[in-house]
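On clarity, I found the account of how folds are encoded harder to follow than it need be. Since the whole study asks how a given chain folds, the encoding of that fold should be made plain. For the editor and my fellow referees, an illustration may be useful. An entry of this sort, consisting of the sequence and the corresponding backbone structure tokens, reads as follows:

:::
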Amino acid sequence: MTLVRSTDALILANLADPVLRVRAVEAASQYDVEVLVSLTESYMLTASRKGARTSVKTIQAYSLAVREFVPWAQQAGVQLLRPGKRDGGRFVSWLQTRPSNGKGKQGPLAASSVAQYVAGARALYRALRWAGATDAQPFEEAHVPPDPTPGIVKNPPYSAEIDAALPHCEPRLAALLLLCAHAGLRVSEALQLRVSDLNGSQLTVTGKGGKVRRVPLGRRTREALSGLTPARSDGRLFHWTYGQATYRLQKAFRAAGHGDAWRGFHAARKHSGTRLYAATRDFTRVGLFLGHSSVDTTRRYVAVLDNDVSREVEDF
């Protein structure tokens, strides 16, 4: 796992307490976005629960949230060090009505995006309290309504698309797709794999938060990996970035006649979870396989038929 160690962030963490407090107060008073982003990163990397093991994606997401919140606060007349008790809720309301500016997206922000922005703003205030700049907690009573449509419905698992796309993938790309769709890996985990992580029919995977798990490999996945040589000098099996891997699989889906069905790598991971649950009927085992800390998370990865218990209730 790649760890984020921003130079500016670590400089702030090394300041004496009085100096850090002054720096944080100045930044908040001036709505200095860049310093407040660095302050949040510094807190996340040195004082949060995960510390230096905080993932790159989390740091990036929280930094984006701070860049969104601070200009809003300035325009909305919010004093960052002395916010009103309703200002957190005001920010949530604004996010819910703000149009999405993502590439190719229209309409309001998704509930998950709103929650992510609010999580980042909360992290900013934890950082300000850590620096001794304020005791304010404007998001303590701010609630983010959940999305009424389950993620498994909005982004369901692939089904026949996987086998249809595989013949249109060159061997290394096919191995990547199988690692996600059959071995249940996150694409970030798969792209970081090294030859040394392979051990016969098992794979050692380092997931979120540095957690290590052993993943059994099915026959097709083992065969796909067996012919691969390292793609990089450090032993990694793949040299692609996330964007490069996405571009290649989108082409394979289009070639298979499923261009409109591409929904990202997460739908491939859900394909794996759904198939394993159908075979085991055990969310706990599926969660361990996917590397989830909570079974509640696993439930969001499994598509269960509406009539899944029809046989069981037949003789009630």
